[in-house]
Specification:
Length: 496
């Protein structure tokens, strides 16, 4: 997060860490600067995120730095430290062009030039003393701001002392001088009065915050297929893969959701379609081989030949109509029942995700969740019943072929039995391998989606630091590995 694919210069790295006030944070992290940062910096506070981003920018050694209020989420003494050691005239960026966007007017005495924006347009430009001497809108605004700050501070002092009788008198005596020296002094005094905490107290608070967070992260357990603990050093948990064949529990769960009666009806309808197709093919063969139609002595326009053709055509049409009607019924039943199953599974998945504790999303990449909601749900919606239909058709064809061979050539039964045994052995090897390849394909889809999501969210940082090529190369590597799993799975299927 700091080096961002740059070469490590230990001396420079330590200077950047010290200048950006990250030493105390790294000291309380369980693995120091090797501690894994979760997606979107879930284990960092707002101030830590700003300081890490600033350290990353400082380490890159650019010529121009655009700093969009980098001190807004840090404590007063930390902001003072960062300004002095990074942004200020004696900081690491003293020889760089720095454009600081800030609402903190107490930093103005130390900047070279002030650019005032009014309604999105530049209204005044120049050193602070010049703008104050000009007594324009900015000088008037600054005077009003200082007056309000002094009133607030004096009211707090009166309340702390318990003396409310002189508050009106004190407020009525407040007068704001417009000379440059007084403005500088009051800016400095307001900044010092805002810093009520000593550096030691803030460091102690930071230590308490990190210690509490570390303690919580060690105690929280996340429930998934297997309970696991969130490691303080490793936020993102490795995805676990099942092994071997698909468990029968998966089939029984799907059957329960689909309805066993519906599965039985669909099976009968599928077999009816296959039988109709097979019988229609046999009938067409008998039609072509009809002795009457092949008798050359019978004229082509004879009544006998016409009646014979009409008879075969009627029977063939009956089987064709039966097959068509059955296919329509299968399609309708399959669509309604399958949609019900897909909706139930999707709703259960969404309900489970919404019921997960926040720590689950801290330890689970968004790509893994997207993979479950896209690719896995897509398999249920589109391909599951299709493969079941293909399997039934293949089993029916094999069964019919074996019966046909046994009827016509019983002697081949001695060959069929060893072939079936070899097929069973091959199936025992193929199915676990194929299932594992598909699981790996699903697993490697998650990093691709996570990388795409993270790259999209951090596009501004990637472009600013000129790391587009690195992220494109990293994305290509992940996609290549995913495609290698896909191609291996396809090759495994084709080999069968």
């Amino acid at each position: 997060n700091v080096l961002f694919d740059s070469e490590l210069d230990e001396e420079k790295y330590q200077k950047v860490i010290q200048a950006c006030a990250l030493e105390s944070d790294l000291a309380v992290f369980p693995a120091g600067d090797r501690t894994e940062i979760g997606e979107k910096g879930i284990n960092l506070s707002g101030g830590q995120k700003q300081r890490v981003s600033l350290a990353r920018a400082v380490y890159q050694e650019s010529d121009v730095y655009l700093l969009d209020d980098p001190l807004s989420a840090v404590d007063a003494h930390v902001g003072r430290h960062i300004f002095d050691h990074v942004i200020g005239k004696n900081g690491l960026l003293h020889n760089k062009t720095r454009v600081l966007v800030t609402h903190g007017v107490h930093w103005l005495p130390w900047v070279d030039k002030v650019v005032v924006l009014t309604d999105g347009q530049v209204s005044e430009v120049g050193p602070l003393d010049q703008l104050m001497a000009h007594n324009g809108p900015f000088a008037q605004f600054l005077s009003q701001y200082l007056e309000q700050q002094e009133k607030t501070l004096q009211i707090e002092e009166i309340k702390d002392s318990g003396d409310h009788r002189h508050s009106k008198a004190v407020l009525s005596d407040l007068e704001i001088e417009n000379n440059r020296k007084d403005i500088f002094e009051r800016l400095l005094s307001i900044e010092s009065q805002k810093s009520d905490y000593t550096e030691e107290q803030d460091v102690a608070k930071d230590h308490t915050f990190h210690a509490s967070k570390e303690k919580i992260s060690k105690q929280v357990s996340i429930k998934s297929d297997k309970d696991y603990q969130v490691d303080a050093q490793k936020i993102i948990e490795e995805e676990e893969l099942a092994g071997g064949r698909v468990s029968w529990t998966v089939y029984t769960t799907f059957g329960h959701l689909m309805g066993y009666i519906s599965i039985l009806v669909l099976t009968v309808l599928f077999l009816t379609v296959f039988v109709s197709e097979l019988v229609a093919g046999f009938w067409l063969t008998y039609w072509v081989d009809s002795p009457l139609l092949n008798n050359a002595s019978i004229p082509a326009d004879s009544v006998e030949r016409a009646n014979e053709n009409y008879f075969y055509l009627k029977v063939y049409s009956v089987w064709g109509i039966l097959e068509t009607v059955t296919v329509v019924i299968v399609t309708v039943v399959k669509a309604f029942r399958h949609r019900r199953v897909a909706r139930i599974i999707h709703d259960n998945l969404i309900t489970s995700l919404l019921a997960c504790p926040i720590q689950f999303f801290d330890a689970t990449p968004i790509g893994r969740v997207l993979s479950r909601l896209s690719k896995d749900i897509g398999v249920i919606d589109l391909t599951l019943l299709l493969w079941m239909e293909i399997w039934l058709h293949a089993m029916f064809c094999i069964f019919c072929s074996i019966i046909t061979v046994i009827i016509n050539l019983p002697v081949l039964l001695a060959v069929i039995i060893p072939v079936l045994i070899l097929f069973y052995i091959f199936e025992k090897i193929y199915l676990p391998t194929s299932c594992q390849i598909r699981r790996l394909e699903r697993k490697w889809l998650s990093p691709v989606l996570s990388h795409a999501s993270e790259s999209y969210a951090g596009t501004s940082v990637i472009r600013a630091l000129g790391k587009e090529t690195k992220f494109m190369r990293k994305a290509e590597e992940k996609i290549d590995f995913l495609h290698s799993m896909t191609i291996t799975g396809c090759a495994c299927e084709r080999s069968v």
